[in-house]
Automatic annotation (TrEMBL), chain B:
It comes from the Bacteria. This is Carbon monoxide dehydrogenase. It holds the Pfam family CO_deh_flav_C. Keywords: FAD, Flavoprotein, Oxidoreductase. GO terms for molecular function: FAD binding; oxidoreductase activity. PANTHER family: XANTHINE DEHYDROGENASE SUBUNIT C-RELATED. It comes from Pseudonocardia sulfidoxydans NBRC 16205. Residues 1-181 form the FAD-binding PCMH-type domain.
Length: 818, 298
């Protein structure tokens, strides 16, 4: 392992490392190519798309959590000048099909409710009008008569056999239940010296991207084709699924990606906005734009994060060796089940964390209630898992009297144990967890903070030092969506990423990527890889985005995979083209291809400085001089390269082994410093230290952005973000006045450092870094609050730690509550 | 999030504004800084047929010391921005509580548009400035086509977002008595984030007599009821006492007496009662300290 030197804080200039090969561009903080257009307002978002005659959509949402729709009167809305279409769920169903789902259970979902609404904000009717104002006037003029039904809010109560049923097509609100044992769980519990337990609560949150989900759909009634601009991620992965929903043949569906104003996982599929725009364009014959507003997005984004109750136990031997882990999870999925239990497949990648825990019981119940459904949000199911595991480790440290760093060190998977197969089957590629921990303790200056803590306690103030050491599984394979089923409806095994690269006649390099610009940095990464492979300047590489008609298959950003996958795809294409250029150069210079090397953008005879050809020389030859190229070479310099998952194995038929599906595993240790006002419950972050290992750091500035942004969202998870529903099922957090996220005022200086253990599985040794901040910060901050309030003996097992919850914890500790 | 259609009027002088308000009565809403009204309109929680923008009306932006009959008063006109008040040397000298409370309102860009009077007229039960006005024993000057009247802060706030203002009336100014030597004031609050409306906040004024005992106390709370409310039991407990630690603790313990706080996702009623007690203690300690003329961090 090598350390990236000279980076006391979040350094923005990287130095090329010397792990094996000397690299010129990989590892440098090349300025982000995406920034200028984003900062200058020149990127085209869905909201910027204007087509001739385009109409604007709006949605009328249900005010009730659960109700039967008795009648809908749209006549007043239709009479408003400028209104071109008003559609109820039943009318829309004649134009578009139900939303595709990954679940095996019969949980049908249409973009606009038919007969029954199942969560507050669910669409009841949609409108297209000449502008959004009129569309909203029309929504206000629609009269809906409801018969209110009992709302199912509490997930545990929802599990009762006699609970009000969310879907009549199911026998129970427990849409899915499965218990899986890996290893000798009972034996480990029996031989344990100590078993620590927690009942933990992780509430639902949403991704809150700056730009909400949206689409512009344009139906051509003459050739029955559909063009859709959207901020979906799956335009080059599942375009056929969208086509099926929109009732268009797959070869007449064109999806064009727009710049995306943030997603954090929430815009993979976004079928609802496409269905709404699609139904309205079919109804009117005009292009229609529908972009959720903030209220639509919070109430009905279809992609909220996990909502779990854990009963968890960690069994330990006398010396603190972790033996087994049991997790009994009730997960509140809300009213629909579009992504099935994918979030648990995801969590299964790293339930036992960085530790050598021998056995695991995973007992999961996916419960339906009258809330907006789950989808994906940064962490994607592994986030609460890290929270619970690290809380248990802290508790074991406390109960067994072993220092919390020491108990972790004793249980870390050692560097020589990689690749390491976890009890549930996933494989970890590489790591040096003790080195990360040691560096973090050093970086934070723990001794100084302990002294400060003591000084403040004498004044009646409560400073706390947190600690968490967590995994960040990166680079998913599709099996995580379905391996919890014995008979999955779609047991897909591909998560490809493609680029199309060409070198033109003047030597210019152009790369078309299949993924969208989702807020991350595909242009920069691709340019760095091309620069590395050809020795040219990354500024000279042009990167564009492919629409769905070019066939550049791409699962896109998600599961912290994009840098891994794009560098693989780009390197593959670059190598193909470079090899062809070498052959052409060798032919021209009349030497053996093995004697040609590509250095600084020129192809030269090894050891003969004078004999060389530029990229343009070869480009022109390849494009216009067929007779001057080797006999079996076709004209042009084009390559499409699809990079498939670099290391995956299928699950076993009996599901005792889920296979390797998320094997590039980054790691981090976070040390937040908090101060807690024990009387008011206000938690203030004073400082934050993070040491991260995501393998080869492709670009330190980009990684820093991911980590810091993730930590900020983690601060939200720890202290603020939570969907709350009233007993009647009403959403009590419908706007940003109630649903709170951290602002710059709540975020301390964040100091980030990197260690690097390259992945043996990927090109250049890169691992992902997209989710780590949020996967670690919540549990680290919980640990800090515990530490601050140690004099009271509090135990944080529920997030977010709102002032009221903290005051209750302190009061409960006074009363001797456990 | 688009407002319903409305007519927009922009009068240039007070008479014109009052005529328009009289003509449209309950169908009209005054637009001052727009920092609350526009949000309500976008969410269609308010759909006034007519919006009367008073920002061009001359003379409403005066911030001045008024020496008439009775004690001197500080007067803030209807278009005095919250930011102007917060940074004003007059306010710092004569009504520091207004500046201290005002600094907790939102963020500087919002305060640069939002007006002190607008916040008072909006009567959000969680807002800082109405609470400060109440603690300062301030008053509201309202004018309509039929004349001008003065409404004591104690009588102005009648419920959540409701006041004793009649349709057709415009608040032309708020006034607070000048804070004299021997009186200390303090504002403290707990909000979920910097710049958010408080979960609970306390504005306190304490006047010490010549013998050092507490001669007068006014304590007003926000986030603790359906409108800004006085903590009268705590006021009574402190007034006449020596203002020492025990007296403050005894007063703070009574700060939630008789409160019926609202409950929302930021705090239950019980939690707000708890905060009312904790924050009253803190506000009183600081106010007493300041009443004695001591520096804050002495
Ligand atoms: C992001 C954000 C954060 C905020 N945070 C806080 C906070 O922490 N604390 C807080 O107290 N407030 C907060 N606010 C609200 C802000 O303080 C508003 O400015 C204030 O409540 C209203 O003042 P205004 O001048 O903007 O009034 P407007 O929005 O123009 O009007 C508000 C209401 O008062 C009426 N009105 C205004 N002036 C008069 C008048 N002269 N006579 C009669 N009626 C009148 C209007 O008709 C309307 O009903 C926040 C606002 C925003 C946007």
């Amino acid at each position: 392992m090598s350390t990236v030197e000279d980076r006391p804080t979040t350094a923005t200039t990287g130095s090329p490392r010397k792990n094996g090969t000397e690299r010129r561009w990989i590892g440098r903080s090349v300025p982000r190519k995406e920034d200028p257009k984003l900062l200058a307002g020149r990127a085209t978002y869905v909201g910027d798309v204007t087509l001739p005659g385009m109409l604007h959509g709006a949605v009328l949402g249900s005010p009730h959590a659960h109700a039967r729709i008795v009648s809908i009167d749209t006549s007043a809305a239709e009479a408003i000048p400028g209104v071109k279409a008003v559609l109820t769920g039943a009318q829309a169903a004649e134009l578009v099909n139900p939303m595709p789902a990954f679940c095996a259970e019969p949980v049908p979902q249409t973009a606009i409710a038919i007969e029954r609404v199942r969560y507050p904000g669910e669409a009841v009717a949609i409108v297209a009008a000449t502008d959004r104002y009129i569309a909203e006037d029309a929504c206000a003029a629609i009269r809906v008569e409801y018969e209110v039904l009992p709302a199912v809010v509490d997930p545990e109560a929802a599990m009762a056999p006699d609970a009000t049923r969310i879907h009549e097509t199911l026998d129970s609100n427990v849409a899915f239940h499965r218990v899986l044992d890996f290893g000798d769980v009972e034996g480990d519990l029996a031989r344990a010296h100590t078993v620590v337990r927690t009942r933990a609560r992780w509430h639902r949150m949403c991704a809150s991207p700056m730009e909400t989900a949206g689409a512009v759909a344009s139906w051509n009634p003459f050739d029955k084709s559909m063009t859709v601009y959207s901020n979906s991620n799956f335009h080059n992965f599942l375009p056929w699924a969208f086509a099926g929903m929109l009732g268009v043949s797959t070869n007449r569906m064109r999806m064009i990606p727009c710049a995306v104003g943030g997603s954090f996982g929430s815009k993979h599929f976004i079928t609802k906005v496409l269905a709404i725009a699609g139904a309205l364009t079919k109804a009117t014959g005009k292009p229609v734009q529908y972009l959720e507003d903030r209220v639509d997005n919070i109430a009905a984004n279809d992609n909220v994060g996990c909502d779990r109750i854990y009963d968890a136990e960690l069994a330990l031997a006398e010396d603190g060796e972790m033996l087994g882990l049991t997790l009994k999870i009730v997960d509140d999925y809300g009213a629909y089940f579009q992504f099935a239990h994918g979030q648990h497949g995801n969590a299964m990648a790293q339930p036992t964390g960085p530790y050598r825990i021998g056995s695991l019981r995973y007992d999961v119940s996916c419960v339906l209630t009258n809330k907006v459904q789950q989808g994906f949000f940064r962490g994607a199911g592994a986030d609460p898992g890290n929270f619970v595991l690290e809380r248990l480790v802290d508790k074991a440290s406390e109960v067994m009297g072993i220092d919390r760093a020491e108990i972790r060190r004793r249980n870390f998977i050692a560097p020589e144990q990689f690749p390491f197969k976890t009890p549930s089957g996933n494989v970890y590629d590489s790591g040096d967890y003790a080195a990360v921990l040691d560096r973090a303790l050093e970086l934070a200056g723990i001794d100084d903070w302990r002294a400060e803590q003591e000084r403040l306690r004498a004044e009646g103030r409560y400073l706390g030092i947190g600690l968490a050491t967590c995994q960040e599984r990166t680079g998913y394979n599709a099996s995580e969506w379905w391996f919890l089923y014995d008979n999955p409806p779609l047991p897909a095994t591909s998560t490809p990423e493609s680029v199309k690269m060409d070198v033109d006649a003047m030597g210019g390099v152009r790369v078309e990527v299949g993924c969208p610009l989702w807020g991350n940095s595909p242009e920069t990464v691709v340019s760095q890889v091309v620069a590395e492979e050809f020795g040219i300047d990354p500024n000279d590489v042009s990167v564009t985005y492919a629409d769905s008609t070019t066939g550049a298959m791409s699962a896109g950003p998600g599961g912290s995979r994009l840098t891994i996958m794009l560098s693989g795809a780009t390197r593959g294409a670059a190598r193909t083209i470079r090899d062809k250029m070498i052959r052409i150069a060798a032919h021209a210079m009349e030497i053996d291809p093995d004697d040609v090397e590509c250095v600084d953008g020129t192809f030269r005879a090894k050891g003969v400085p004078g004999a060389s050809m530029s990229m343009a020389d070869i480009g022109m030859r390849a494009h216009l001089f067929f007779h001057s190229t080797p006999e079996d070479e076709s004209s042009g310099l084009v390559a499409v390269h699809t990079y498939d998952h670099p290391y995956s194995t299928p699950p076993s038929a009996d599901r005792t082994d889920m296979g390797a599906f998320y094997p590039m595993v980054s790691h981090a240790c976070h040390i937040p410093i908090v101060e807690v006002d024990a009387e008011t419950g206000v938690v203030t972050l004073r400082a934050y230290y993070a040491v991260n290992d995501c393998g080869t750091v492709m670009n330190p500035t980009l990684v820093e952005g991911q980590i810091v942004g993730g930590i900020v969202q983690g601060i939200g998870a720890a202290l603020m973000e939570e969907y709350r529903y009233g007993e009647d099922g009403a959403l009590d957090t419908p706007t940003f006045r109630e649903y709170l996220m951290p602002s710059m005022h709540e975020v301390p200086e964040i100091v980030v450092e990197h260690l690097e253990t390259p992945s043996p599985f990927t090109e250049y040794g890169v691992k992902g870094a997209g989710e780590g901040g949020r996967l670690v910060a919540p549990t680290a901050i919980a640990s800090a609050v515990d530490d601050a309030l140690k004099p009271f003996g509090v135990w944080v097992d529920e997030l977010p730690m709102t002032p009221e919850r903290v005051v209750d914890l302190v009061a409960g500790a006074h009363e001797g509550r456990p | 999030m688009k407002p319903a259609a409305f007519a927009y009027l922009a009068p240039h002088d007070l008479d014109e504004a009052l005529d328009q308000l009289a003509e449209h009565g309950a169908d009209a809403r005054v637009l001052a800084g727009g920092q609350s009204l526009v949000r309500l309109m976008n969410a269609r929680l308010a759909s006034p047929a007519v919006v009367v923008d008073i920002n061009r009306v001359g003379g409403l932006d005066a911030l001045s010391l008024v020496n008439g009959s009775g004690p001197a008063r500080l007067r803030l006109g209807a278009t005095v921005r919250q930011r102007t008040s917060e940074l004003s040397p007059e306010v710092a000298a004569h009504a520091p509580l207004l500046a201290e409370a005002g600094a907790h309102v939102a963020h500087a860009p919002v305060r640069s548009r939002g007006t002190v009077v607008g916040s008072v007229a909006f009567a959000d039960p969680s807002a800082e400035l109405p609470t400060a006005l109440l603690a300062l024993d301030g008053r509201v000057v309202a004018r309509s086509r039929s004349g001008e009247r003065t409404i004591e802060a104690d009588d102005f706030f009648t419920g959540p977002f409701t006041t004793s203002l009649a349709p057709g009336e415009l608040v032309v100014a708020v006034e607070v008595p000048v804070t004299a030597a021997g009186t200390g004031t303090a504002f403290v609050e707990v909000s979920r984030r910097h710049g958010d409306l408080p979960v609970c906040g306390v504005a306190a004024t304490v006047t010490r007599g010549d013998d050092g005992s507490v001669a007068a106390t006014r304590i007003a709370l926000c986030g603790a009821g359906e409108r800004p409310v006085r903590a009268r039991a705590a006021e009574d407990a402190l007034t006449g006492s020596d203002g020492g630690a025990d007296a403050v603790a005894a007063a703070a313990a009574r700060a939630a007496d008789g409160l019926s706080p609202i409950a929302d996702c930021h705090g239950s009623a019980d939690f707000r009662r708890h905060l009312a007690r904790v924050l009253t203690g803190r506000a009183l300690r600081t106010a007493i300290h300041r009443a004695a003329g001591e520096a804050d961090n002495a």
